[in-house]
């Protein structure tokens, strides 16, 4: 049934008041605008942005998936995950982890079941090809994301999506999900023009601030200002170029003036960028380092005592001190939760060699243990140093393990291709998200949970389903904390802790900020003074 904008907004108001659902609505359920722009897009006080110029950035964090496709125009295979240069999603996560409306103006559950969510789209948003974005495009985009398995964070709950008139969209889920809007912010979940199943998402056309000119799937891209961008007056710069580089190339390119910005710099090079006249911006957090241990094979870490011994043997404070020069900051708690999440529950002890040795002895390994090698791809420049600290820490408890570095190109396919669906033992990164997604990974992600089974795994899955169906936010917080305790008691995976995302930019580049969610970085509010 088609509905008008007024009727849709009235429906949202009815949903909130009639069912008492306000405690679980994530982010803003109604659009707020300032001078015709979303409130979250406001510039710093006193800003007087200039227009024109070109931002050329280096990126040390390539997209793992680029080796799986030759089509860099597809958002899944965009060279560095920073898809919001070309595309938009329905919502965006801001620097404080709040959900903000991007292509969606507002949203709310239609009733108290939390299985049906209605979204109101912005009107007048134009694609790069001159076509207006409507509900038809959103429905087609999400059907494509489901068919192409674009995000495991939505496929588990998605049943169908329907148009509600020209500017309304309804998501129907197969189970209650109190924080569904947050899941729609993922970098892959871009909105593209409706097209045939084999063509949609393949042409590089989006609604973003820049229009794609050319792309080399493994090297870089060039784009120009979208003069019809839905945020009027944005972007400020005329041209945008991004290139995947290693750490040394990044600093050399910055010194020579080839780059006027570099994303995800090696923390140890911050002083070098500053010495070259750069300004370093450091986010509150960043991706976390996870060690995935498949447990369907005949491996010693099938015993949870060995897994816990491994965790307690890793000196994570040494990682913070040596790699990040940031002693005393948070360390991983062996869940995919970030220390930035208010629900985060630290382990009672994160480093305890004596207890680790005792656990190994109880598991039948009083003289230590040799474990199979783990592979990793250096997603971030400092990752090899982190893994070296892990290897040396484990040795102190009598745990011998080789952690081998592999090229990024093709790494994801290699890991998944050995022992599917759980993959081979590997180390990787998980991005910081809200607790519903963070903790849901150990239910929905086969590789990360690595065939975790048993009484505690069953209890975890049951409690997680109850948690995301709970409409009261404060109750959910307590349940999220209990879920973390279950994981810590069985250690199905090891999470070392998280990096602090950092970027460097030339003094003339203004308002370019590092985001704790690397893929949520934006370019529509950046300008160049000279």
Automatic annotation (TrEMBL):
Its main location: periplasm. It is found in: Periplasm. Pfam families: SBP_bac_5 (PF00496). Gene3D superfamilies: Dipeptide-binding Protein, Domain 1 (3.90.76.10), Dipeptide-binding Protein, Domain 3 (3.10.105.10), Periplasmic binding protein-like II (3.40.190.10). InterPro entries: Peptide/Ni-bd (IPR030678), SBP_5 (IPR039424), SBP_5_dom (IPR000914). Residues 99-427 form the Solute-binding protein family domain. Keywords: Signal. SUPFAM superfamilies: Periplasmic binding protein-like II (SSF53850). Belongs to the bacterial solute-binding protein 5 family. This is Solute-binding protein family 5 domain-containing protein.
């Amino acid at each position: 049934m088609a509905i008008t904008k007024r009727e849709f907004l009235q429906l949202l108001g009815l949903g909130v008041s009639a069912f008492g659902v306000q405690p679980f609505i994530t982010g803003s359920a109604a659009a707020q605008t300032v001078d015709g722009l979303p409130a979250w897009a406001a510039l710093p006080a006193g800003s007087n942005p200039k227009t024109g110029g070109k931002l050329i950035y280096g990126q040390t964090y390539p997209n793992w998936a680029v080796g799986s496709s030759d089509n860099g125009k597809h958002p899944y295979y965009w060279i560095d995950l920073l898809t919001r240069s070309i595309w938009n999603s329905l919502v965006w996560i801001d620097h404080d982890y709040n959900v903000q409306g991007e292509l969606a103006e507002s949203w709310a559950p239609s009733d108290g079941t939390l299985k049906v969510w209605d979204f109101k789209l912005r009107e007048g948003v134009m694609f790069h090809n001159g076509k207006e974005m409507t509900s038809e495009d959103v429905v087609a985009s999400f059907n494509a994301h489901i068919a192409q398995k674009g995000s495991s964070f939505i496929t588990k709950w998605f049943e169908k999506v329907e148009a509600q008139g020209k500017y309304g969209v309804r998501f129907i889920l197969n189970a209650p999900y109190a924080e569904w809007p947050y899941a729609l912010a993922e970098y892959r979940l871009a909105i593209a023009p409706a097209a045939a199943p084999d063509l949609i998402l393949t042409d590089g056309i989006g609604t973003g601030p820049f229009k794609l000119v050319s792309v080399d799937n493994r090297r870089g891209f060039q784009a120009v200002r979208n003069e019809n961008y839905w945020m009027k007056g944005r972007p400020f710069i005329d041209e945008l170029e991004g290139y995947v580089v290693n750490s040394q190339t990044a600093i050399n390119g910055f010194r020579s003036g080839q780059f006027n910005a570099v994303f995800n710099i090696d923390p140890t090079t911050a002083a070098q960028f500053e010495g070259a006249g750069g300004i370093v911006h450091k986010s509150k957090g960043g991706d976390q380092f996870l060690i995935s241990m498949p447990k369907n094979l005949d491996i010693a870490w099938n015993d949870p005592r060995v897994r816990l011994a491994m965790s307690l043997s890793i000196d994570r404070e040494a990682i913070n001190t040596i790699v990040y020069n940031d002693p005393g900051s948070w360390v991983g708690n062996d869940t995919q939760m970030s220390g930035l999440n208010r629900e985060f529950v630290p382990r009672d002890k994160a480093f305890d060699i004596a207890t680790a040795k005792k656990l190994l002895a109880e598991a039948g390994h009083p003289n230590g243990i040799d474990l199979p090698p783990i592979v990793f791809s250096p997603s971030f420049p400092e990752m090899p140093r982190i893994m070296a600290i892990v290897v040396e820490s484990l040795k102190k408890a009598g745990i011998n393990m080789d952690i081998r570095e592999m090229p990024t190109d093709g790494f994801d396919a290699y890991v998944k291709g050995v022992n599917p669906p759980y993959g081979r033992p590997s180390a990787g990164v998980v991005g910081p998200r809200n607790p519903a997604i963070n903790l849901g990974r150990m239910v929905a992600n086969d590789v990360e949970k690595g065939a975790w089974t048993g009484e505690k795994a069953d209890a975890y899955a049951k409690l997680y389903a109850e948690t995301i169906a709970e409409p009261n936010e404060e109750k959910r917080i307590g349940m999220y904390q209990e879920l973390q305790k279950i994981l810590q008691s069985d250690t199905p995976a090891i999470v070392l802790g998280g990096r602090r995302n950092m970027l460097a930019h030339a003094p003339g580049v203004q308002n370019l900020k590092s985001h704790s969610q690397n893929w949520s970085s934006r370019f529509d509010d950046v300008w160049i003074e000279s």
